[in-house]
């Protein structure tokens, strides 16, 4: 394939402008009304998840929360373009994607609550454990995809990471492996312009992150990350290509981290309020709402229904996280090895003895 | 003695970096979020403003890159200080550390040295989620060519950082996250013992507690508690894991005849096992009981809600002391 076929478009693909008006793009299919309504509902739910999580942090029910507030279009699209047999490889920021794929919200938040590490069974909804060591999950995604090929499965893997993570060596290795093995993977980079305090300009001087794909021999595309229609279209095409044997591709979504890196971060130390304010008007929810309302698809009744669904998820989160799960001390020694070593058995007995003596005294 | 302001351990590290950068233009500070943000623990706060973006700067987000870049800079006359944001996020740099930073002097018969300081916020007790609380000292201590220090006091934070930066060899400085905000009134001009020296933090006659980094305050607290019960515990702060101060540690153990090593890393094949071996080899005939250890369990660092069960506690230290065969005397 000539390399120019791998090049991303000059501007990020946009199908809905900031005011929710449709933008014509002959190369991209515009999603159906039904898909957009479904996506809008997911956006409202996603926003509610972010707001609820924020409240739970303030109430001390979550240890920490890296919010995807403002990035919900990316989060919901990544889940919506996949089928049940596909896999999602999320980062710490992708709680909304994970819940979007059907994982129980309380199990999803177990990690950030601090009860255990991964709180859900990754095999149940085909969602890998949320990964914090940056970019390391990308190469796992390639392995899963290659295994699917070897086993003759119809599986596509969505491998997510942030802009900062593209600087890690593992990002390079994952893309190269995927291309060489022609693995059915979609690398999905949410470029929210920051890696904690470090702006994208300090990560790369490439024309865009999507351009990096060319060097690996795979197509790259850039998309407006606050335009859920464009995301459904571009990610949908990438998944379709992977499924039909065309191999991996890289999609870069241009978006913005509206809040601090996590609740523990102080973003005023490294960015100006007016920069954040400029992104307020590009909110992904406003855009899809304006479009759907304009087309008279979003009736009052439907809006109320969606709000009720969002509230229901928030209630599940509140109820689940308000509960104190009594930690089980013996859990410390479970699942370290398939069979506990003799030393671990000794240590488990030591702890049990210590705790029983504490109870007596 | 002149009055001194109370400062935190994070501020002491910061002052050490500031003074080293003032004293030597070849000292560079770089890593992730160390510029405008001043580091996620604020250890590099204000350095970019004071010394400019060429001396203290953010790099692309890549630990292997940061480490390898430091190797090259050191090969050409610079004195790099790098920050690994968290213990477990230093692992991508492991290859560079083990294969190059640690071995360069040896491979080149001394023609090339690696005056690099590797700053690693380490250990737990802060309610951090996975990958934010590892005690990785054994990996570094096991790698010949590396110097490894773990300060436990505000004054040592300053001294050991200054010595690390001045060292002709690579030094891993393990910065105990849990103690970053601990405060002390210190005279930074007062000379503290340097790298390679352990220090007796508390005199005692019945048994010796040996600790470093985050475990030193636990040992001191245990000694206080034991004193209330009429038992006199001595506390030795190892400070410098490599080189290890056999002389001070063993003299202390010989003086009491009993010892407990306290460290939060998993105990198996660890720095604590090395200390027990060294003490036993050297002090066997002075020992009234086998040297005991209070360490973390041999498990991946647990989630926040369970970490208190994993970490050495005052009670566990006192329990261990109780088992040192007092009845046989
Ligand atoms: C290997 C590694 N190094 C450092 C960190 C610490 N860290 C956590 S998130 C982060 C910034 C990541 O930025 P980006 O990839 O843009 O994702 P975002 O947080 O913006 O979603 C850093 C440096 C880490 N988790 N893993
Ligand atoms: Mg980012």
From TrEMBL, chain A:
Keywords: Oxidoreductase, Pyruvate, Thiamine pyrophosphate. InterPro entries: Alpha-ketoacid_DH_E1_comp, DH_E1, PdhA/BkdA, THDP-binding. Residues 44-312 form the Dehydrogenase E1 component domain. This is Pyruvate dehydrogenase (Acetyl-transferring) E1 component subunit alpha. The keyword NADP does not apply. One of its GO terms (molecular function) is oxidoreductase activity, acting on the aldehyde or oxo group of donors, disulfide as acceptor. Its cofactor is thiamine diphosphate. Pfam families: E1_dh. NCBIfam families: PDH_E1_alph_x. One of its GO terms (biological process) is branched-chain amino acid catabolic process. SUPFAM superfamilies: Thiamin diphosphate-binding fold (THDP-binding). The keyword Oxidoreductase applies.
TrEMBL record, chain B:
InterPro entries: THDP-binding, Transketo_C/PFOR_II, Transketolase-like_Pyr-bd, Transketolase_C. CDD domains: TPP_PYR_E1-PDHc-beta_like. The keyword Oxidoreductase applies. SUPFAM superfamilies: Thiamin diphosphate-binding fold (THDP-binding), TK C-terminal domain-like. GO terms for molecular function: magnesium ion binding; oxidoreductase activity. Keywords: Oxidoreductase, Thiamine pyrophosphate. SMART domains: Transket_pyr (SM00861). Gene3D superfamilies: 3.40.50.920, 3.40.50.970. Coiled coil: none annotated. This is Alpha-ketoacid dehydrogenase subunit beta.
């Amino acid at each position: 394939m000539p390399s120019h076929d791998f090049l991303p478009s000059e501007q990020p693909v946009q199908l809905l402008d900031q005011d929710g008006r449709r933008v014509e793009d002959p190369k991209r299919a515009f999603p159906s009304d039904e898909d957009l309504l479904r996506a809008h509902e997911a956006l409202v739910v996603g926003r509610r998840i972010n707001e609820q999580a924020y409240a739970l942090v303030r109430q001390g029910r979550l240890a920490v929360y890296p919010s995807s507030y403002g990035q919900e279009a990316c989060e919901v699209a990544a889940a919506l373009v996949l089928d049940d047999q596909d896999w999602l490889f999320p980062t710490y920021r992708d709680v909304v994607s994970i819940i979007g794929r059907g994982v129980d919200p309380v199990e999803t938040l177990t990690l950030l609550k601090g009860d255990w590490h991964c709180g859900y069974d990754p095999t149940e909804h085909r969602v890998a454990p949320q990964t914090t060591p940056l970019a390391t999950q990308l190469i796992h995604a390639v392995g899963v995809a290659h295994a699917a090929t070897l086993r003759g499965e119809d599986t596509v893997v969505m491998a997510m990471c942030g802009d900062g993570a593209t600087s890690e060596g593992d990002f390079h290795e994952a893309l190269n492996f995927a291309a060489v093995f022609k693995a059915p993977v979609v690398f999905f980079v949410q470029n929210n312009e920051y890696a904690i305090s470090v702006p994208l300009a300090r990560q790369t001087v490439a024309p865009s992150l999507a351009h990096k794909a060319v060097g690996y021999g795979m197509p790259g595309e850039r998309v407006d990350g606050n335009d859920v229609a464009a995301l459904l279209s571009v990610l949908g095409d990438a998944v379709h290509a992977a499924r039909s044997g065309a191999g991996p591709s890289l999609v870069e979504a241009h978006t913005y981290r509206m809040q601090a890196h996590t609740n523990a971060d102080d973003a005023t130390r490294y960015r100006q309020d007016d920069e954040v304010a400029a992104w307020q008007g590009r909110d992904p929810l406003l855009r899809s709402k304006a479009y759907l309302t304009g087309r008279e698809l979003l009736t009052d009744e439907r809006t109320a229904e969606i709000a009720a669904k969002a509230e229901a998820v928030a209630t599940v989160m509140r109820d689940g996280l308000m509960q104190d799960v009594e930690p089980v001390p013996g859990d410390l020694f479970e699942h370290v090895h398939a069979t506990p070593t003799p030393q671990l058995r000794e240590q488990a007995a030591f702890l049990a003895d210590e705790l029983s003596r504490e109870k007596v005294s | 003695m002149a009055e001194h302001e109370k400062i935190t351990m994070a501020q002491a590290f910061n002052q050490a970096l500031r003074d080293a950068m003032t004293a030597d233009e070849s000292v560079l500070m770089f890593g992730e979020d160390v510029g405008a943000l001043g580091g996620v623990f604020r250890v590099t706060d204000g350095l970019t403003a004071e010394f400019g973006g060429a001396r203290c700067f953010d790099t692309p987000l890549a630990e292997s890159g940061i480490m390898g870049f430091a190797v090259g800079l050191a090969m050409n006359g610079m004195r790099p200080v790098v920050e690994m944001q968290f213990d477990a996020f230093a692992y991508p740099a492991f290859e560079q550390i083990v294969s190059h930073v640690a071995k360069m002097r040896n491979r080149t018969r001394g023609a090339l040295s690696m005056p690099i300081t590797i700053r690693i916020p380490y250990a737990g007790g802060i309610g951090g989620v996975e990958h934010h609380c590892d005690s990785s000292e054994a990996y570094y201590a096991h790698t010949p060519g590396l110097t490894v220090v773990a300060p436990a006091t505000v004054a040592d934070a300053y001294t050991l950082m200054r010595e690390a930066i001045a060292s002709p060899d690579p030094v891993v400085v393990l910065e105990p996250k849990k103690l970053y905000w601990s405060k002390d009134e210190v005279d930074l001009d007062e000379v503290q013992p340097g790298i390679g020296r352990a220090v007796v933090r508390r005199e005692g006659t019945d048994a010796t507690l040996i600790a470093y980094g985050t475990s030193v305050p636990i040992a001191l607290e245990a000694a206080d508690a034991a004193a209330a019960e009429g038992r006199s515990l001595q506390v030795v702060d190892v400070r410098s894991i490599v080189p290890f101060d056999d002389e001070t540690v063993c003299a202390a153990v010989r003086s009491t005849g009993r010892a407990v090593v306290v460290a939060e890393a998993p105990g198996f094949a660890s720095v604590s096992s090395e200390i027990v071996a060294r003490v036993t080899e050297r002090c066997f005939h002075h020992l009234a009981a086998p040297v005991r250890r209070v360490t973390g369990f041999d498990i991946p660092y647990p989630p926040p809600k369970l970490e208190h069960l994993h970490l050495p506690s005052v009670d566990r230290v006192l329990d261990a002391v109780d088992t040192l065969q007092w009845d046989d005397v």
